[in-house]
Amino acid sequence: MSLAASNPAAELEGLRTERARLISLLEAHGIEWRLPPKAVEPVGEPEPSTLSTDEKVTLFRRLFRGRTDLCPVRWENSTTGKSGYSPVCANDRRPGICEKPRIKCADCNHRQMKPLSDQVIYEHLAGKRTVGVYPLLTDDTCHFLAADFDEAEWREDAKAFFQSCLELGVPAALEISRSGNGAHAWIFFTGSVSARDARRLGTAIISHTCARTRQLKLEPYDRLFPNQDSMPKGGFGNLIALPLQKAPRERGCSVFVDGDLRPYRDQWAFLATIQPMPAHDIEPTILRATGNTHPLDVTFIDEEDQKKPWKRSAAPRKLAGPMPQSLTLTIANLIYFEKAQLPQPLANRLIRLAAFQNPEFYKKQAMRFSVWDEPRVIGCTENYPNHIALPRGCLDSVLELLRDNKIRCDLIDERYAGESIVVAFAGTLRLDQEAAVAAMLHHDTGVLCAPTAFGKTVTAAAMIASRGMPQIMPAEVVDPRPFPRLVPSAGIGRVRRLAPKRKDPFRMLALLPDEHGVSLVIQRNGNRAPVLRPFPPASLHALNATCLAASA
């Protein structure tokens, strides 16, 4: 008898090791080994409701539970056409107490918020007013999660998200928005759950939808309610309009629908059948949806999950499903892929190679600032009618992904090699600058990340002179003034500045031939198209002062 057979602990450990080996072998070949989750059956037409008015209000408040100390009501300005939601103050417009507009509501000492009462909910349902709700509570928890779809293809996006919920066993309810030009997917919980966990669940479902069903844009990651993990200082978090308000309901809007977007005949009978999701089911669902990868499923993971780095794992390189034997890549100003050649899992992975988490979002969230209009994920993929295009810096990652999935790459090079220009470098490089120039010139694409005062402008001038042809160099900060002195033979006659985009910290430096001879162009990276599209350079190098900017 072997020692392992006489030692149950050793035998158990051996079985665990063999299980881990078999799992890794299956995943390496793209074979799904987990049992499929128990799907939620689509809800059929329920029996007609017999609820009284009070019971309807109670059911409504049980499902759509948010902050009850605030009563946000919709307002409209007939003169300007603007509309929005504001919490109702008991002293609003009271003579001698309310001093609007001289004193803002946030700075008023007489501010006294009205609570969200049963009467307010009844008036909302009866069409006397339109009410919203703040889902994020003061202790950073919530009772529901809502995903908002309002892009041009919102119908297909909402149905795909709802289908993912069914596949993952997540009870969800679809609602057509009050405008009729969008939809909300609601997920209710049995009790209060951490807003971070609820948002991770929504993020995981979106990533699962993109990988399995339909390629959503990255905007849905920013359209989850609650919109923050924690309450911003001096604010209430983001608001979402409550459904079933009478006026839009009579137009077929603000009502709940099935998976084919057909309204239920009896809205209250449907609401009564909704089974909220227990909190203990959130983590297993996230695991099933993502396969133990990060819920955002993007290439660059920032500080959000640095608290438990040992739990992070890289996204699987082997993609599920049939893959093409070959793929045509056209490299010009960007890397172009024909959509017709891309199966859904491959298209999704390519798009996410060029996406990263926005550090400004997490910085503001950590400081409890508002993250309104601050994207959580920045995507650098461009969408065309027949192609998707990735930045040139993603080429190595793309080739590695194709190799891992045994896809042959047919590369078409449409870059412009350029005509020689007569330039000579008139400066003197330090040893560290010479080393940087020598290293960069060995590659067609690269980033020089150097601290302030390194002399990146001088280094760029030396690289341009060494290549002897037009160059483009994105730069975080660049000073154009030394260039006519550093490369005097280039005959730079002027410096062109293209209009920058708001909130874009990256600039672009280009030495290009034009009708004036050779021009030096300083341009924001967000407006790269005017330079790069007519002039896809054979080489592209970036200059940055921080590693963060270099990775971006």
What is shown here, in short?
The chain has three domains: 195 residues, DNA primase, PRIM domain; 106 residues, Translation Initiation Factor Eif1 (2-Layer Sandwich); 121 residues, no CATH class. Helices cover 29% and strands 20% of the residues.
How is this structure best described in words?
- Helix content is 29%, strand content 20%.
- The chain has 552 residues and is of the alpha+beta class.
- A six-stranded mixed beta sheet has the order 17-22-18-20-21-19. Strands 7-4-6-5-9 form a five-stranded antiparallel beta sheet.
- Strand 10 and strand 11 (335-338) form a beta hairpin.
- The longest helix has 21 residues, at 8-28.
- The protein is globular, with a radius of gyration of 28 Å.
